[in-house]
Every structure is written in structure tokens, then in C-alpha cells.
Amino acid sequence: MKISPLFKKAYDNMRPGRITMEGFLGDDERTLTDIISEDEKEVKFLKMDFEIISSKLKYFLNEGLKGLGEPLTVDKKWLVRVDEARGRLPCPFEDKIVNKKTVYVKNVEKNLDFFYSDLSIHLIEAHHFFEGKGSTFRLEPSLIKQILEI
Amino acid sequence: MEYKFLFDSLVIAGISTILALLIIIVDSIVNNYGEVTISINDNKKVIKAKGGSSLLTTLSAERIFIPSACGGRGTCGACKVIVTTDIGPVYPTEKPFMDKSELETNTRLSCQIKVKQDVSIKIPEELFLIKKIKARVEKITDLTHDIKEIIFKFNEGVDFSFKAGQYVQLEIPPYEKIKDFTQRAYSISSAPKIKDKIELLIRLVPGGILTTYVFKFMKEEMEFDIIGPMGDFIVRENNSVMICGAGGSGMAPIKSIIEDMIDNNIKDREIWYFFGARSASDQFYIEKFRSYEKILPNFHYVPMISESESGDRWKGEKGMITTVMDKFLKTKIDKNAPREGYLCGSPGMIDACVKIMKDNGIKEENIYYDKF
């Protein structure tokens, strides 16, 4: 399959040491197109859509910011903490620059947790990209569904 | 047939080798900038170095350390220097970090500009004092489930001088998927009187490269490079009432400042220190600061929790740091006395506390902070 220049550039930017030290692909050896299309199928199978996922992720980011750097309980069910670091990160698709924020969310009832970044929200919303398998910031759609109860 | 295939393969391999050699030769000619001269602060220091690397890397090799939180990836915007030589326009990777006045003074990110020609730069004088020193982990103590107190001991004879409130950069080696050395900035939590060791408070950040290393791999007796001291978050010497606020590992510089005042017998200054955490189990150093209240008669420590957990026997203040600080500014702290703010924490916490302080009549120019 022919790879578009945009995807080729994004794939290069996702390698370790380009934008982040660890990169965005983990140890996933699939092409960027395959990673995205397989996750799109998974999202559909789980009866979710990207708009709902990104709006939920934004909701917990905004609620977590109210903790002013400390964890706080959201809607009596989730423990949320937002860490902010100095600086900004460009999207590997080169269409946005975001602040460096990490959101930790724990569903206290289910004792399940995960974390994501400002950039994760944009990558999911705009590019349907959850990162490659094995990447530290990879978000599994099934885990999102379980933890955020979408 | 087989001979022809072998011959074709050899021809292709030969052409590839020649092309690769040509690329190496062209690269060495085009990117060979020879020796370049870097003049710092009107020739106060002049460096001769091999051209072609970033200004940040070139200066670091000459043991001049420009603060950088991202290790030169152009994502933190910390490594700014003023370039007085014309080296061309600001790159798109630099622009998001520059305000109007910085663009006018030709401020650049030293990690983004390559040294290809002789260049003159201006940097703050105190950067000449920054050292890179080896330090051994002497002791690691868990303060809470996600904050560690780590004491680093320098080698014999090292005299590490710093001002209370300053920070250092800790460097860790590659590990697991991380292939490069990584540096991150941490405020010093010990007092400047102690010169053979420093204490840092490190909080685990989910997915954080350095903090993950600290929590998974750092052990006592291991040796690391520490670069510093850096920063201008220091106490202004006057008689203003100090209103301090911090949360989590933001405790570090304020602790150093209070302990420095004890060491220097500064007992007459009024200090209020508001320290926020979510629950009682997230609070630490309470007994230590209660003992400081006995040494400094005008020091008031106000720890608070924002949420109770079952079993909490918390009898202190409850609420967000902004709520408690606002209450004290309105009811307990003299409104007519000159007041100064000292804040360390997340950008969100600092912005919220600055607003509370301004709403209570503290001038913005008298509020000092150290955003993570």
C-alpha cells in the first residue's frame, strides 16, 4: 500500500528521540495505517466513537485541573490527578502544539487506572491514534471503556 | 543464469557503496564548519569549539550549562540565550516559546540553533557558577506513597554552594526503552549550610521518564551527575510578611528557605506557610515544621487536606490551598503590613494562588514562584 507523505512524516516523528525520548510506537511493528485502522475497528466493536472518547478524556483533564496538582475525587467514583510539566509538545502529524499535561485516572470501584496526556487526547480525536503497542502512553480502547464507563 | 544474478547483485552493492561513500564525503564537506569562536558576555569568556553541534551541546561540552528541562528536544523552552550575531531568522520550533520582547532582543533556544559560524551570545552571569558534579545516593526515604526524599552526597572536598530556593538538574542513565541520558530539574530541599550533600524531593509522575527510574531503579550507593545550582526563586531580604504556598514536592524550596532562616537566626520575620495535600496520608514533615514553629516564633505552619479518607483523624485545616489561604489572608494576617508571596507547585496551583493573593491586596510584582 502506498503511504501518504503525511503518514510517512508522522511515522518518522514518532520514532524514539524525535519528539519524545521514547517515541509513540512502542515495540509495535505494524504500519501506522494498520495501527490506526485496527484500533478504529476495535472502537467500533466496543460500540464507542472517537468524539465520545475524546470528550470524556477532556472532561477528566478539566476536572483534574481543579485539584491544583493534587488528586481529587470526581463524581464520587474516579480519583484524578493532573501533572503539568514545563514546555510544549508538537503533534507528530505536525498540526498542533499542546502543553505537557499528564492525567492519571483511577476508577476506584473497579480498582483500575491509566494515564494519558494532553497530546493523547489530540491524537485520538484528530488522528484516531492510540499509540503503538508497548508505548508508555498507549491507551487500549477496551481499558478506556472499562475505566471511564463509556 | 546464477552467474548473471550474482554479477547484478555485486554491481548494485558496488553502486550502493559508492553512493554511501559520496554521501559521507559530501556531508563532511558541507557540514564541516571547522573551528568556531563563541564569545560570551562581551568577551568575558571566549570558547573555541568544533562547529556543527547545537549551541546548548557545544556550551555544555565546555562546562557552561544552560538550564534545560527536556534535554535539548526543543519542548521545554528553558534554554534561552540572547544572540547578538546575525545567525538568521528564528525557527518555527522556537517561536511558540518566545514573547514579543524576546523576539525583539533576538533571544533564541540554544538547543535549536547550530553553531555554524563565530557567534556572540549573552547569558546571565550566574550560569558561569553552574557545575556538573558526581553525587552518591546516601539515603532514600519514602515520605508518602508517591514522594521520596533522596539525599545525595558529593565526593570528598566538593563544596556545593547554593542559595535557598534554587534547583539542580539530576541526570539519569538510559534504561529499558529510554536510550539516552535524561535530565530533569528538582528544587533543593536541604539548607545551604550543608555543603557536602543535598536533599531532593521527587514525586512519581505517571509515565515520567526520570521519576519512573527513581521509583523503580534508583538505589542507595548509586552515583549520578548533578548539575547546578540554578534559578532565582530566592527570598528577598526585607521585613515583608512572607506568604508561602506549596503542594506535593513543591515543599522542597520552601523547606530549604525556612531551614536557611533558622540557620541564620532570622527570627523576627513573619512567615505563613500553607501546604496542601489531598488526604492526611499525603501530608508529611508536619512534626518537623511544628518544631520549626518553636524555633522561629513568627513562623506559622498551616498544612491542609482537600479530601478526607475513611480513618483520617485530621484535625487541621480542610479545603483547597486557595480557600484556606484566602481565609487566613482575610482573617489572620495583617492586611496593612507589606506582604510577599512565595509559591512552588503546578502552574495551575500557582496561577490560582496568585489570583487569591492579588485579590487580597498583594502586588503581583511581590509574588515570586517556581512553576514545575
What composes the largest sheet of chain A? Answer: 4 strands, antiparallel
Number of H- or I-type helical stretches of chain A? 5
What name goes with the CATH superfamily of the largest domain in chain B? Nucleotide-binding domain of ferredoxin-NADP reductase (FNR) module
The name of the CATH topology of the largest domain in chain B is Rossmann fold
What's the SSE pattern of chain A?
HHHEEEEHH
Q: Could you list the spans of chain B in which at least 5 consecutive residues all have pLDDT below 50?
A: none
Quick one: how many beta strands of chain B? 17
In which order are the strands of the major sheet of chain A placed? 1-2-3-4
General shape of chain B: globular
Rg of chain A computed from alpha carbons, rounded to a whole number of angstroms: 15 Å
Low-pLDDT runs of 5+ residues of chain A are none
Number of domains of chain A: 1
Q: In which range does the helix fraction of chain B lie?
A: 25-40%
Biggest sheet of chain B: strands, sense, closure?
A: 6 strands, antiparallel
